Fold each of these.
Amino acid sequence: MSTAEEAAGGCVRLAGAQDSPWGQPVYWASSDDPSYQVTVGKDDPPPELQDLRIPDGALAADNNDASMSLFDVDRGYVVALTDAEFDADSRTWRASGATVTYLDSNGLDVRTGQSTDERNRGSHRGNNAAVMMARFDEVSAGRIEHVLKVASGPDPSSRAVFPMVGSDGDSSDPAAPPQGLRFRIKPSVDLESLGLPPQALVIARALQEYGFYIGDSGGVTALKLEDTRIQGRGELWDLPADALCELPLSPRYWDVLPEGY
């Protein structure tokens, strides 16, 4: 991940920074929002999609993934949608993939055999919509209290390890990391000494305490930021895409945890 041709500097970049469209929109549904029967092009989609509350004006990311995260705290779950699209004429939503994770569970997909809620299921190979991005409200509060998902720029392995239950990677190279592999910034690294922008420092502290896991493949190794622009709130992030590149992916700064951690 630091030396492959696609390593792009060998660090974790921030997708969605500096007008990049690769952030993740996040929406919060309530009883005031309309409900939709979301059509998903997968067999046996989660039953919550039969009556999913989505705020008016919600938009998916303006990129090839067209992804979004929907929190419904009253109903107790978060939903990830891929290729999400709203048809204004018929007032219907459709998507190519969806995953539901219950907020009071341990966040694991039921297929891991270790989930505390059998309703945690969907098509994102074990990913959880709550950890697919760094949320702006968490960073503004000064603390992210969970692991984060990162996409690997070098093509990850076709195999997966816990907590993932599948991989969209194609590599058979034994050096390619499997999806699910977990990294953390070494506890010995003095983050305050690196001169990181304030928002990046909050993210780095989470990566030191909780780490990241490889949950996707991408053009570069990247962690998504919440897309506040597409939500209509304007650009609320004040940091460059390379804000974490003071922490290159090397043994000086990072631990790679044993597979299956």
Amino acid sequence: MSVVNVFSPVEAVVFDVGRVLVQWDMRRLFARLIAEPARLDWFMANVVTEAWHFEHDAGRDLVEMVAARKAEFPGHDDLLDAYATRFGETIPGNVPGSHEIVRELAARFVPLFAITNFASLFWRDYRAGEPLFDLFGDIVVSGDEKIAKPDPRIFELAARRFGHAPEAMLFIDDSPANIAGARASGWQVHHFRDAPTLRADLSARGLIGEAPSLSRN
């Protein structure tokens, strides 16, 4: 949990999306398409890797990068087409407890924002079916800006757009690199592990109520 600085009140809370608000696992899609465990392991380690996917999050054109990957790894065209057309299947559901925290913050009129490493097309498809983000004042999407976390420029851009000083915002992310980048840019931070730990931090900051305890008869 982040250390609370009582002299630095939080004016706004800024969320990451993947693995903070929604579950994300690219292997989930390809496990449906590749039956052999050893081949699946090789494919995820060499072809559709998170590092390669990050290039699309950072704004690289989807058609160009898939075509280049097909040339580099011939014989995997159908699987690479699935990456381009079935990305929604890599999102199995919400992170337990996180959406409830967002709604409680919104009910207390805490300004909410997000910074997400998300490809533009994939984001538009996902966002269209998720009304939770109607509660957010603004969302900085890496694919739109062609800048991805932890690049300090994305935190500078977000601060300008959100209209709050970095030190007055709490940034929540599961990535140690992104947390370090935000901290270096002057933001207050919470390294996300699970919703109960986040709730405890937000409660200590006076932003949210504590989780109700279960009474015993």
Amino acid sequence: MKIVRFRRPSGGPPGYGRIEGDQVVPLAGDPFSAPADGGPPVPLDAVTLLAPCRPTKIAAVGLNYRDHAEELGMALPDEPLLFLKPPSAVIGPGAPIVIPPESRRVDHEAELAVVIGRRARRVPPEEAGAYILGYTCLNDVTARDLQHRDVQFTRAKGFDTFCPLGPHIETDLDPSDLAVECRVNGERRQASRTRHLIHAVPELVAFISGIMTLEPGDVIATGTPSGIGPISPGDRVAVRVEGIGTLENPVAAPAAP
């Protein structure tokens, strides 16, 4: 099932739906509580797709591809290296990534994202699948110069618009060997497969849920492969994950004060 969060052309509050062909079938309620169909289908090209979930937190994993650690000249971590991105950073497909005036270099980072489906606390790796609703694409946008300057990741990873997410949640997917790539203005910058993750999805769910309770709709960003690079106003950034689709966002300069 492909789950979306969308806004109708007539306005009103956002809702959840499932994609069926070229239509969106609205859901009654949210996808975390066994929802039923909730109304007549709406043409997909007539709605605005939003970020497909509203996480209370984004638990992100650094240096989780060997080649990415090598390009940064950093040692491989023995355990997942975690940081958090704030919910206020989340945007949906088509929404602009805004370059903040505080940074001289902002990078793209294409990632597979895990969407949690039920409350998870100290989940064993072998049971992780039962707590996952599905998977989507994520761009862990990063102010690289600020990351190097601060050492801590909060500012560099936390600006508004720095977590594009979407275009939908795919519920029927094996995450163990998926192609992940990023293109900027059509030029491929990143390309790898999730089989090269140092810490695989079940291990990440187990490790993170042993530290913090994961709530329905929370997101785990599984890490980015090598090829990170700068983006600038006017660029278009496309993150594609095999079996899910493509998340595309334009890049914009900050609005004038």
